[in-house]
Amino acid sequence: MPEFVVIIGRSVLSFLVLFTLARILGKKQLSQLTFFDYVVGIAIGDMASTISFDTSMKFLNGVTSLVVYTGLSLLMYFGAMKSFKFRDLVESSPSILVKNGKVMEKTLAKHKLTFDDLLNGLRVQGAFNLSEVEVAILETDGQISVMKKPQYQSLTPNDIGLNVAEDHAPSLIIIDGVFLEKRLQYLGYSKEWLLEELRKKGAEDIKDVFLAQLNSDGSLYVDLYNDEQKLEQDNQKPQLTANLRRIQADIEKIAAQTNDKHAKKMYYNQSEEIENVIQKIKPYSKEKPT
């Protein structure tokens, strides 16, 4: 049998074996690569490639090595799940790099990180000033997690006592002309409602729609196959301006009720920022004539 045929056959078989073993190992290899996961992944991949072209190696011996490595990896994972001490030995544990705005130099040196590495990790998390950082932690996968001090954290509706309606992720209900009826029913809408909304957008039928997405506020985004066809998307900008005005009024009401001077100033500053946003979008928030 020609050698290239043997190599093709070995490559296909080793690929199938590697695919099966990767499925057994699970998605942790992709989502949370620790140093150990990284090394094991490289070793298993190198074994699989060697099996493909090294005809001097018996195929069964190569597969046995792959299975042994995979089995040992699974044992390590199960041991880490059952024992904290074993998990700390295998995967280590998160380490504090910054505490109360102060850098832990010994921890940096232990993990062989430079000051530039730390600053780069903080910037990725949106922290450009060390004094703003309450805690920065080096995770087991090498990522840096950051918690800012309370005064530097973004203001949320809950912080100012605003009630916000429950939200759900936008959901695609038409993909490439295919209607996902069960998904629409799950969200509480009927096919008749959808067809009526599509007509408002310029579509005569579902087959005219390339993509349709239902947003959490009930608005519908539609993209037609024919881009030259007139498509009137719901204009939500006037509603956006009205919502911003309501939020601004609520903030000013809270500011008037508080006796804390610093809090009062913060609320009024937030109100001014909202006003600036309103003025910026004002030229675009007018409804188009029909």
Automatic annotation (TrEMBL):
It comes from the Bacteria. It is found in: Cell membrane. The chain crosses the membrane at residues 6-26, 59-78. It holds the Pfam family DUF421. The keyword Transmembrane applies. Residues 8-76 form the YetF-like N-terminal transmembrane domain. Keywords: Cell membrane, Membrane, Transmembrane, Transmembrane helix. It is a multi-pass membrane protein. Residues 82-214 form the YetF C-terminal domain. This is DUF421 domain-containing protein. It comes from Niallia oryzisoli.
